[in-house]
């Protein structure tokens, strides 16, 4: 098997056709093919590896150099996408070999964590990934926002096409990258696709000139839906300003839908709102994102609770080994190979679920991701308190 890096200019003829077959309605029309080719510029800095057989590319996988907040610190994150094998070459180990090499290269390049949206979680569990909570989709009628129609809120909403508001939106998402656990952003060259396609309106809520909320959205039709992306707000006032803006569509659209974080409780937003909040998970296209740690030492300095525990991680090409994890200073300290008996034995998926705060040590054991004696569970619970990450970027 020959694995090689695919250059930007080769992608259109080598890996894009594989991905079109795997992820699009196909065969593509000439116009769709043209559009696909046009996307090449949004792949500029990606790392794409491919397996070649008899001079043809039969499998590929891509890493997007992204950034992600984990417990308040921002890390280089490898966003894995475009994993596909030609149907005649499947089940021959191509993707296992590709992903192993790709994750290794990204780890060596300083990427401390990795994330992806799986077609089926069990496939990526074998590569050390653990699921995050699925973001919620909330749907409501603008009529349910009547209580907000006339509220006098100390702020304002700007409405513009995304191409005009893009810079303010990007800046706002970069602020959230610094603040929200799990929040991940694309590199500039990939993020620009939203601006260039210009297929969204952008509403921003501002207080004293500062952006406190933003939502890109589309309207499907007169009497149709207002379909929002993520409703990003930094305060209840930011949220209320955007909801009041939606309320003013009461005679124009039947429903409003937006994505919210797993922590949101839309039933408490406004009296009589009657929202439906859903987190539907289905393969292959509606799965929750997954994450994994690529370097335990790389997490040193991250905010941590006061626990102290030794763990051994087995069966992983990147992080296998023994570590003493110490949060007594409030920041995670990591000492490798301390030689003492391991308090907990974990798979990398188990360790990743704990680092991101999505599972309790007891869950980790039940899931088959480790052996955690009672004392070690107490320390791990204290070291990595439960959190609800929201990843934002969709790739
Ligand atoms: C899913 C896909 C990428 C797998 O590629 P592949 O080259 O056949 O995978 P491999 O042969 O390297 O298999 C890797 C491992 O997963 C297992 N596996 C393969 N396909 C699987 C599947 N659909 N479900 C569960 N496990 C699977 C293999 O047994 C192998 O396990 P092992 O290494 O522990 O023995 C390929 O079937 C494909 O292109 N599917 C359509 C596109 C797609 O869904 N891509 C994923 C997007 S997230």
The CATH homologous superfamily name of the largest domain equals: Gcn5-related N-acetyltransferase (GNAT)
**What gap, in angstroms, lies between the N and C termini?**
28 Å
Q: Are there runs of 5+ residues with pLDDT below 50, and where?
A: none
Bound molecules: coenzyme A
- Structural class call reads alpha+beta
Provide structural commentary:
This protein has helices at 15-23, 30-38, 94-108, 121-125, 146-149, 162-179, 188-197, 236-247, 348-355, 361-366, 374-383; strands spanning 2-5, 47-53, 56-70, 73-85, 113-116, 130-131, 136-140, 156-161, 184-185, 201-207, 210-219, 225-230, 232-233, 255-260, 276-278, 290-293, 308-313, 321-326, 333-336, 344-346, 370-371. A hairpin with a 2-residue loop joins strand 2 and strand 3 (56-70). Strands 1, 2, 3, 4, 5, 6, 9 and 16 form an 8-stranded mixed sheet that branches. It contains 11 helices and 21 strands. The protein has 3 domains: 2-116, Gcn5-related N-acetyltransferase (GNAT) (Aminopeptidase); 136-278, 3-Layer(aba) Sandwich (Aminopeptidase), CATH 3.40.630.30; 294-383, Nonspecific Lipid-transfer Protein, Chain A (2-Layer Sandwich). Helix 6 runs antiparallel to helix 7. The model has no long low-confidence stretch (mean pLDDT 96). With 395 residues, the chain is α+β, with helices and mostly antiparallel strands. The two termini are 28 Å apart. The chain is 27% helix and 30% strand.
């Amino acid at each position: 098997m020959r694995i090689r890096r695919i250059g930007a200019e080769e992608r259109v003829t080598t890996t894009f056709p594989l991905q079109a077959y795997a992820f699009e309605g196909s065969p593509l029309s000439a116009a769709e093919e043209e559009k696909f080719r046009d996307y090449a510029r949004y792949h500029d800095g990606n790392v794409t590896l491919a397996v070649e057989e008899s001079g043809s590319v039969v499998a590929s996988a891509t890493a997007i150099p992204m950034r992600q907040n984990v417990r308040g610190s921002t890390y280089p994150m490898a966003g894995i996408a475009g994993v596909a094998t030609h149907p005649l070459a499947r089940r021959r180990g191509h993707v296992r070999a590709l992903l192993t090499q790709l994750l290794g290269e990204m780890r060596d390049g300083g990427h401390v964590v990795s994330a992806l949206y799986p077609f089926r979680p069990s496939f990526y569990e074998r590569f050390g990934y653990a699921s995050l909570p699925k973001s919620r989709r909330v749907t409501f009628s603008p009529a349910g926002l009547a209580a907000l129609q006339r509220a006098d809120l100390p702020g304002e909403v700007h409405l513009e096409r995304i191409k005009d508001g893009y810079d303010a939106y990007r800046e706002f998402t970069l602020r959230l990258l610094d603040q929200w656990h799990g929040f991940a952003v694309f590199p500039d060259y990939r993020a620009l696709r939203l601006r260039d396609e210009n297929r969204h309106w952008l509403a921003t809520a501002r207080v004293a000139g500062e952006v406190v909320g933003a939502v890109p959205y589309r309207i499907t039709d007169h009497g149709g839906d207002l379909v929002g992306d993520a409703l990003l707000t930094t305060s209840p006032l930011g949220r209320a300003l955007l909801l009041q803006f939606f309320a003013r569509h009461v005679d124009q659209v039947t429903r409003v839908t937006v994505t919210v974080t797993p922590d949101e409780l839309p039933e408490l937003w406004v009296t009589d709102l009657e929202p439906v909040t859903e987190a539907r998970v289905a393969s292959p296209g509606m799965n929750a994102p997954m994450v994994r740690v690529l370097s335990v030492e790389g997490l040193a300095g991250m905010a941590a609770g006061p626990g102290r525990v030794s763990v051994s991680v087995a069966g992983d090409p990147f992080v296998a080994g023994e570590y003493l994890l110490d949060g007594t200073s409030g920041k995670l300290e990591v000492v490798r190979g301390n030689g003492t008996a391991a308090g907990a034995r974990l798979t990398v998926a188990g360790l990743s679920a704990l680092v991101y705060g999505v599972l309790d040590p007891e869950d980790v054991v039940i899931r088959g991701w480790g052996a955690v004696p009672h004392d070690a569970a107490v320390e791990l619970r204290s070291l990595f308190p439960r959190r609800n990450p929201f990843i934002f970027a969709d790739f």
